[in-house]
Amino acid sequence: MKAGVIVFPGSNCDRDAYHALRDVLGYEVDYLWHADRRPLDDYGLIIVPGGFSYGDYLRPGAIARFAPIMDSVRAYAERGGLVLGICNGFQILCEAGLLPGALTRNTGLKFRCRHVYVRVENAQTPFTRHYREGEVLKLPIAHGDGRYVCDEATLAQLQRNRQIIFRYCSPDGAIDPAWNPNGSVDAIAGVANERFNVLGMMPHPERACELLLGSEDGRRLLQVAG
Amino acid sequence: MVSTSRSPEVWRSMGLTDAEYARIVELLQREPTDTELGMFAVMWSEHCGYKYSRPVLRLFKKYREALEGAGFENAGVVPLDEQYGIAMKVESHNHPSAVEPHQGAATGVGGIIRDIFTMGARPIAILDSLRFGPLDEARNRYLFEHVVEGISSYGNCIGVPTVAGEVYFHPCYSGNPLVNAMAVGVVPLNRIVSARADVPGSAVMYVGASTGRDGIHGATFASETLDEDSEQKRPNVQIGDPFMEKLLIEATLEALETGAVLGMQDMGAAGLTCTTCEPTSKSGTGVEIDTALVPTREPDMTPYEIMLSESQERMLLYVQAEREEEVARVFRKWGLNAVVIGRVIEEPILRVRHHGEVVAEIPPDYLTKQCPVYYLETQEPEYLREVQNLDLSALPDVESPEAALLQLLESPNIASKRWVFEQYDWLVGTQTVVPPGEGDAAVLRVRGSQKGIALKIDCNSRYCYLHPYRGGQLAVAEAARNVACTGAMPRAITDCLNFGNPQRPEIFYQFEQAVHGIADASEYFGTPVISGNVSFYNESERGAVYPTPTIGMLGVLERAEDALQAGFREAGLAVLLVQPPAWDDPHLGLGGSEYLSVIHGLERGIPPTLLLDAEAQLHRFLVACARQRLVRSAHDISEGGFAVALTESALIGNCGVQVNLPHEAFRWAQGRRDAILFSEAQTRVILSASNEAVPAIQSMAQAHGLACYRIGETGGEEVAIAYEGEPLIRLSLQACRNAYENAIPRWMERRV
To answer: Which long-range CB contacts under 8 A does B7-13 form with residues at least 24 apart?
Structure first.
């Protein structure tokens, strides 16, 4: 299995994703440069990593969506390829129209980095099939703009289609505003597209692949092969 | 007085004395041009030239060796294993942060990060030591909030985790906050890059951001006392662009892989002047550049401005001739400027042209080695005798230990700094094994190595105020103990020496004494000072700051996975107290304590006694316990004493604890409950361990000449402390947590 990690100017979780995929999961991994437009069909998984692509100028993800590589990602996703956007990658996928909704300033207005708990809402996607429905994962977040918003019609559609994949919750799995770190609507931490081959999430699974770092709950999510 | 056409006001406003101006004329045998005068003024400032501190810094062994011929090359790198070394450095950005807190702090981080990748090291961690006036003043809250935001916005964006730090509040910092940023990097030992210009003919390549008019004379600004006019110095403060810095990190490290980069220096203080004169002075060469070739943000910049600008995110590279394009291509790929602005020449001259016309022509040594050195007068300050006086017999013992503990837990100096560190991305890089708030120091694994590193930055400036020499020693001892509590052997120090105006003999006395204390302790522990920074003139209308020699400590763990945290992780563990068998302390460890300050409003006494031998033994003991996996947690006893340390371990691990303290372990406290609970007597740690491991830990302590007492057990929802069976404290974890966790957020929600 070969995975690709996109590198935008200002990406800073590209190396972490690379190491998790290569050193922990044993995949072959390539970095994919933002300025290249190229076929991605060799890859079993494309990661749009976290960071501050283009310095978050204008707003997070707003410039990255125009990068040549995003044309390739769009084509790859249309053919059913698996795309995972993490943190800034989630913001980019929303800006690029590959996922519905948008990510706005945290309600607390401050950047927050901590471990949070998320509940697996749909375990029947290519990314979550190794989890149980309702399972609670401990994953780290690190963002200033992670408040997921969308209009009511979209929200209803997301709920109906079970496109909400992760929701922030308490350690025992209760949905409670006190455990929602950024004020996301409906406590949404991650959403998928209608075909479930594109997933965006604010928590960082690539930072949660080894117990030494406090959690390995993210590892199964990256295990899309086999 | 030299006869000159210039008004003395010109050089005086740049921070030069009349005698220094005369010396410049003597050296050049003519009057300097405007550009030359500006170059001398910045290079001969304390900030760049260390003209006042140099004689005292010779107390540091490594510094002495470097001055005496070993050179400063690679001096800031500690070998980790056969393959990798750790580079680290700390630097102050106090004055810019006092004027413009967000940008001041952000560019402080940017500058210190450049110091690290300039050596060819990939930056892997940031730490910061921050000091402000009390939070009941709105201005101090404003500075605190925006300094943290500045660090957060810059560090998070460049993808380097901020893993540890300290924040203190004291009235002495009200007009002059301290912002010390430390950066740590990993470098392959065979790839360390030096700031040298050895090879005539090699290209001088300017890379990174364009040059603007910002930060001109920033180094001079740093070498003055803050006053009412400082607000007008806002234009002296540089503006940072972390996105540019991130590109510069990646491009620079990639460019080094070409093997064509012979030397490199970042443009920090004194910008292009410093990066041309220092490497050539070291190499005995010269350089010829044309400032008209420098990419500028504004048209019509003068050579004077270009040579002195401190615009951020710029580097100067010395590149092998004929291979310029290879290197430039890498920077262009990352969207950065890369322009050859001149060549290294054999003749030891720094020749600056502007559109071909010579505007400066100075032998590099004049700017560096000829910087005057002053031996300043010292005088023991009068206040010392007065404040060291503490009559404990006149001090009533603590009436309500529970109330006192809660008050200490919510003292902003002790309270949880979660409000701060959750604004920092402390996990990016996926190497953070012990994160902020979980241990006495941060621990990182190092990719490609078995080993781990522990990092801490710390200083108790109240101790330094009361006794500068011992304060210096204690700062080293505590930082070393902190890294040892994670299981790491203390290895090396970087220090940031923050003091008032050195031309005042009392201040220089504090400086000399504190440096002496640091040098002695660091030699004893085998933790040399490998790099650092001096920041004088930390004064405002309210006077000088307390002497604050911040110690950045590096420790090494043989295996990263042995790292210890500070919290009680589960119920049913034995709780142990380890300390020296005996010591003398006239003030029972209450001198200069947080307890005296918070409960009695007193800042007096002699700081706690330090037994260097026992302290070094404690470090070895902790390292051995971690290595053999005997211990589950370790936490040192510092500000707030035993009761605070025990409560912190309970809160961090979210597990209660009950202890009954034996008289035998507290004979030194002379029956005073305040000393038992809140003394800051040194070289003491609280451990938790499985019951089976206790005998092995006890014999390990004995082998290290330390006393080890089993004092209780973890479990329950309370913190309960008794002395010889008599209950002193019984508080719910929740009550403790409210005090400890909410103190700073409550202050920061205040809007008036």
So the answer is: B10/B37, B11/B37, B11/B41
Q: What is the pLDDT of residues B463-498, one digit of tens each?
A: 999 999 999 999 999 999 999 999 999 999 999 999
Give A206's contacts in chain B (Cβ within 8 Å).
430
Name the helix (H) or strand (E) containing B124: strand B122-132
Which residue is closest to A13 within chain B, CA to CA? B428
> Which residues of chain B lie closer than 8 angstroms to A111, CB-CB?
152-153, 156, 423-425
Token representation of residue B137: 């003043």
User: What's the total number of domains in chain B?
Assistant: 3
- The beta strands (E) that lie in B572-632 are given as 574-579
| Smallest CA–CA distance from B152 into chain A, residue | A111
**Which of B542, B563, B584 is a domain's end point?**
B563
Same-domain status, B487 and B626? no
CATH for A128: 3.40.50.880
ipTM: 0.96
Query: What is the CB neighbour count within 10 angstroms for residue A216?
Result: 16
Q: Provide the shortest C-alpha distance from residue A120 to chain B (in Å).
A: 23
Determine, for residues A16 and B430 on separate chains, whether the beta-carbon distance falls below 8 Å.
yes
Number of domains in chain A: 1
Burial (CB count within 10 angstroms: exposed 0-12, middle 13-18, buried 19+), residue B611: middle
A12 contacts B157? CB cut-off 8 A: yes
β strands within A51-187, DSSP E: 83-86, 102-104, 112-120, 136-143, 147-149, 164-169
Instruction: Give dist(CA B528, CA B591) in Å, integer.
Output: 28
Rounded CA-CA distance B130/A152 in Å is 45
pLDDT in tens, B103-156: 999 999 999 999 999 999 999 999 999 999 999 999 999 999 999 999 999 999
Instruction: State whether B701 and B577 are in the same domain.
Output: yes
